[in-house]
Write a structure and sequence with these properties.
Number of helices of chain A: 11
Largest interface: A-B, 23 and 26 residues
Number of helices of chain B: 11
Structural class of chain A: mainly alpha
Order of helices and strands of chain A: HHHHHHHHHHH
Low-confidence stretches of chain B: 1-24
Mean pLDDT of chain A: 90
Low-confidence stretches of chain A: none
Helix content of chain A: over 70%
Strand content of chain B: 15-25%
Largest sheet of chain A: none
Mean pLDDT of chain B: 89
Distance between the termini of chain B: 45 Å
Structural class of chain B: alpha/beta
Radius of gyration of chain B: 19 Å
Strand order of the largest sheet of chain B: 6-7-8-3-9-10
Oligomer: heterodimer
Number of strands of chain A: 0
Distance between the termini of chain A: 51 Å
Radius of gyration of chain A: 25 Å
Number of strands of chain B: 10
Shape of chain B: globular
């Protein structure tokens, strides 16, 4: 006697297939919902910014006059900020990842550090702002300058870089390390010549994604006291500055006073989104170009 | 830098022949293990291993999976220490010096004792860079010297003619058998004294296997070779001495001829006649 009854199977077939189709539709709708919201958002922003983005907008300094206001200061501020965030996160983040993956003995201390790095990645950004305010702005008495903002942002995205670099380093196959050790190479020679070259694409991808997060962050910079209105362009690490997301924030608030400010905010959003889009594309390109060859 | 010439090779060959006539009594020991025990955590993987391994011979390590033969060979260049829970007791003498001694630098040991792994593991670099890697980490920067080492090593591993026109191509473009001979060449480039081979042909096709075996016969004129193999015919074909490992112990260690014709232990006979394993 067969346990699987053919009649029974036939009878259930229709309803099983129907359930499958319902499931598929549900999941498709869930996906489409997110996409739809994104499309509406982008459409709104782009429509509102039309006519406001031109060379003058990118090249003019900030002004209370909406017609003459530009975001050169915010763009320069973002660039200066990245000039601090990129090297600091690269050195500290990759250094930490190398230590934890290659040098640290796998034990309680390592597990403890690891757990805290994961926790750090979940700490709200405003808390990092308060940290930056306490240590860099007031403690070191730097004021709300590029260096203080950059250090704060670097701390904020550091866990992302550490975790991404750790994953990239861990993905380097053990047999490559063994080949190097087997010839009498020291740990550092192995890391420098074998592990890092193989892990570099993954590390760079992580760094770029971290930088694009730093470019979009607002809250920590509000907390460390970046002014709402600043006309001079930053010219060094110890200059006061503003960045694009902050500019968006203040123009949005002030649009209650001057309607055109909302258009300026929309225009800045488009510029910021373009920058982020380009950065993420570079990350994807690097990842695809150096896809695992092992 | 020793660039061996034909005549030097010839002399080495003759002197080794000469030695074998004298019942090998003049050969000094490359390795000696004394009551070697090894644990992975609580797992007792090697039990009281006492082996004397001659220089300029091929010593084969055979035995079923999990008998500790790979562990043993990795202990000889302390590669086994990459696994954190390993504990070792007893002693291992390399050229009469204890390698377990704190003052013995593992980097130093591995410069004298090269290793070829189970799976070909070239670096994702050019063929040239793969060979030059070892000399470079030991401080050789002179391009001319490096060129010479690369050619000599590739010739030594019988792969020069196949790759001489594509030295700058990525090593991953080579076939598995070529990759393994490249790895042997890479090992020769540090001019080792001993070469450890951990099942070097297990991932290769029969023709590539044959080439590696012929190569081993050539290499033993200048190097001491310790080879782990799953393949008993291979051990019989290429080795001078054979050690049979079982459950972490050496059951029998003797001339290969003796092991494969008149083994003194019943378990050895059962294994080599294919009754288990």
């Amino acid at each position: 006697m067969k346990y699987v009854d053919t009649n029974q199977v036939q009878k259930k077939m229709t309803s099983r297939l129907l359930t499958n189709r319902i499931a598929k539709t549900l999941f498709l709708l869930a996906t489409l919902f997110g996409l739809l919201v994104l499309v509406v958002l982008i459409y709104r922003v782009v429509a509102q910014s039309l006519g406001w983005i031109d060379f003058d907008f990118l090249n003019n300094r900030l002004s209370t006059n909406a017609e003459r206001a530009g975001i050169k200061g915010a763009i320069m501020g973002t660039l200066w900020l990245m000039l601090v965030v990129a090297p600091v996160t690269l050195i500290l983040g990759v250094g930490t990842a190398i230590y934890l993956e290659e040098y640290a003995k796998k034990g309680r201390l390592q597990a403890f550090i690891q757990m805290n790095i994961s926790n750090l990645a979940g700490v709200p950004s405003i808390v990092f702002g308060i940290l930056g305010l306490t240590i860099f702005v007031r403690g070191l008495n730097l004021g709300a300058v590029v260096l203080a903002g950059g250090f704060t942002m670097a701390l904020l995205v550091l866990p992302v870089v550490v975790v991404a670099s750790q994953e990239a380093i861990r993905a380097v196959p053990q047999f490559l390390r063994e080949a190097s050790y087997g010839m009498g190479a020291t740990k550092w020679q192995t890391i420098k010549n074998v592990v890092l070259p193989a892990a570099l694409p993954g590390i760079l991808t992580g760094v770029i994604l971290a930088l694009s997060r730093a470019i979009g962050e607002t809250a920590p910079l509000v907390v460390i006291g970046i002014p709402a209105f600043i006309i001079p362009l930053p010219d060094g690490l110890l200059d006061k500055f503003t960045v694009m997301p902050l500019q968006i924030y203040y123009w949005t608030i002030d649009s209650a006073l001057v309607d055109e400010y909302a258009n300026l905010a929309a225009a800045t959003i488009v510029v910021l989104l373009l920058v982020l889009f380009i950065m993420n594309s570079i990350a994807v390109l690097i990842r695809n170009k150096f896809q695992r060859r092992f | 830098m020793v660039v061996s010439t034909y005549s030097e090779n010839k002399i080495a060959e003759e002197s080794s022949d000469h030695m074998s006539v004298k019942k090998e009594s003049k050969k000094s020991l490359a390795y000696q293990t004394k009551d070697l025990n090894l644990w992975y955590g609580t797992d007792h993987a090697l039990k009281n291993i006492n082996l004397d391994i001659n220089e300029r011979e091929v010593t084969a390590i055979i035995g079923p999976s999990g008998c500790g033969k790979s562990t043993f060979i990795k202990t000889l260049n302390r590669m086994v220490e990459l696994i954190p829970v390993v504990k070792i007791s007893g002693d291992i003498l390399y050229r009469e010096r204890s390698i377990l001694d704190k003052s013995y630098k593992v980097e130093d040991l591995r410069t004298n004792v090269g290793m070829v792994f189970q799976k070909p593991n070239p670096f994702p670099k050019s063929i040239y860079e793969n060979i030059a890697y070892g000399p470079k980490i030991h401080g050789i920067r002179n391009k001319k010297v490096l060129d010479e080492i690369v050619e000599k090593s590739l010739r030594g591993a019988a792969i020069w003619d196949e790759v001489k026109d594509r030295l700058n191509e990525n090593a991953y473009g080579l076939s598995g058998g070529q990759q393994q001979r490249l790895c042997i060449a890479r090992c020769l480039a540090i001019e080792p004294d001993v070469i450890l081979m951990d099942e070097p042909t297990s991932a290769l096709d029969p023709i590539s296997t044959l080439k590696v075996e012929q190569l081993v016969q050539e290499l033993k004129k200048e190097y001491s070779i310790i080879i782990v193999t799953h393949n008993m015919q291979q051990a019989a074909r290429i080795s001078d001495k054979t050690a049979f490992f079982l459950n972490g112990e050496v059951v029998e260690f003797d001339d290969t001829n003796k092991i494969f014709s008149t083994p003194s232990d019943q378990r050895t006979e059962d294994y080599i006649t294919g009754r288990f394993g």
